[in-house]
Amino acid sequence: MIEISDVYKKFKGVEALSGVSFRVNQGELFGVIGPDGAGKTTLFRIIISLMLSDSGSVSLWGLDPDKDYKKVRQIIGYMPGHFSLYEDLSIEENLRFFATVFGTTIEQNYYLIEDIYKQIEPFKKRPAGKLSGGMKQKLALSCALIHRPRLLVLDEPTTGVDAVSRQEFWEMLKKLQKEGITIIVSTPYMDEASLCDRVALIDNGRVIVSGTPQQITKGFGKSLFGVKNDDMYKLLQLCRLFPNTDTVYPFGEWLHVTFKNDAKEADLQDFLKQKGIENPLVVPIEPSIEDCFLGAKS
User: Fold this and answer.
1) pLDDT tens digit string along 84-129?
2) Fewest C-beta atoms under 10 Å: which of 138, 154, 171, 202?
3) What is the domain extent for residue 142?
4) Residue 123 and residue 129: Cα distance in Å, rounded?
5) DSSP-derived secondary structure letter, 130
């Protein structure tokens, strides 16, 4: 079990983390979801013993990353947000280097990385610096796994990667989870929250809500409506002017709106028609993780 309890971290008077607490169970795929600057990278660096917290505690199966950092680093595989392998070394040379550092070989744990590595193995002599974004991602994950870590920590691994590679990456994580590896992954993409067993939504250094994706969406606590019309800009301005609007956010070709004072969708429809909007569409919808994140912030 991994337990983060009341962790604080400040940089030059600015709080990067402010009382962060959550628990990750053995074998779980746990997501830390939040925008850039939310504190995700700072938290991960504390978990893996690369940074000291100002206060609070972290326990990895009873190990303290501050006091037991040598043991902690043996059981962790870490993939940072930016590609940090040796760009002048080939794919194969990078992988052999990391295997040697951890006292193992590619052959010994090849079964663990096979599904990932075989996609880049035909290019194993190519320098890492000349790989595409998706190939760099697969190489970095292979290097993080080659010593078969107990805990895999991934800091925004899909940022800047195309949609197909993102999907493939999450499929890889699900397979690794079946091998008994506990995974903590951070992402700014709210849609990826549904792929995790449990998540913590974090913003401005604070966990604003945590639980399973289903628990979080069920706890939204308000009726949510989708609003749509041809003139979305005008529609957005008018929804903001509606006296009983609580929140309104653009979501692609829809607006997501909540009401106050027990207002109904018909009330908004009548208001919009009075303002010259023809046939406004207002329908009840189910909240997403992003709706819950924005609702918790407001």
Assistant:
1) 899 999 999 999 999 999 999 999 999 989 988 998 999 999 999 9
2) 171
3) 2-217
4) 12
5) G
